[in-house]
Amino acid sequence: MFVHIQDLHFKYPNARELSIDAFNLTINEGEITTILGESGSGKSTLLRLIAGLEMPIKGKIMVGKDCMCSQLKFVQPEKRGIGMVFQDYALFPHMTLEENIKFGLLKWPRKEKQIRVKEVIDLVDLKGYEKRYPYELSGGQQQRVALARALAPRPKLLLFDEPFSNLDADLQIKIREELRVILKTAGVTSIFVTHDQDDAQALADKIVILRKGKIKEVGSPDKIFGTECDVSERLAVKPRVLSKI
To answer: What kind and span of H or E run contains 150?
Structure first.
């Protein structure tokens, strides 16, 4: 196992119930894991805990051989070696594609930085766009820039917080197919949260169904998606796209 999350608990201040309740999960190196659940199920909270943006009440998170947090230890976000791709991509509008990618490599030697930027630009198939600004790129291209920026520092783990939510349906289908190929080519271990069953089915090696902070089921896409009806009933939401209510 590469990622090991053990007995994780978390509650927001003034909340009555736990947002994450006794969460346990193991992920193999290079595996793409999708956390599937409706809005309020705890998906984004889980990512924030893994990234170090929140501190759990109890529990342990291991990435590789490194302990990120436990009852005795808490590693700050910038020291975890974990990358994150946000819903809105968070690109700097005043920076070119190339400059956006370089931003995550500020401490790298100049020569190594140039080599790495070229590598990730080639990986996401954006060669020739280096000098363009975000507003000159399509939504799909912007997402690939965000992915390239996250991949550039060679993170141990890459987290995705519903990165397809701002794309139209046709582009969403195309991008999620491209994303799986890119992640598998890079060999990076990834966690992807979504409320969309189609995204989960297309991307994941492993799917975790989350409801009210608790794991309801874990399995391969083939196991989880025996029938749409079964999945939606277990989630207690509408099929295909989970309710945002």
So the answer is: helix 139-151
Q: Is residue 234 part of a domain?
A: yes
Residue 240 has pLDDT above 50, yes or no: no
Domain around 70: 1-78+189-245
Q: Count CB atoms within 10 A of the CB of residue 245.
A: 8
45 assigned to some structural domain: yes
List of residues 6+ apart from 27 with CB closer than 8 A: 1, 2, 3, 4, 33, 189, 191, 206
pLDDT for the residue numbered 235: 56
- Total structural domains in the chain? 1
- Pair 213, 171: CB distance under 8 Å: no
CB 105 within 8 A of CB 153: yes
pLDDT tops 70 at residue 61: yes
β-partners of residue 103 are none
Q: Which amino acid is at 64?
A: G
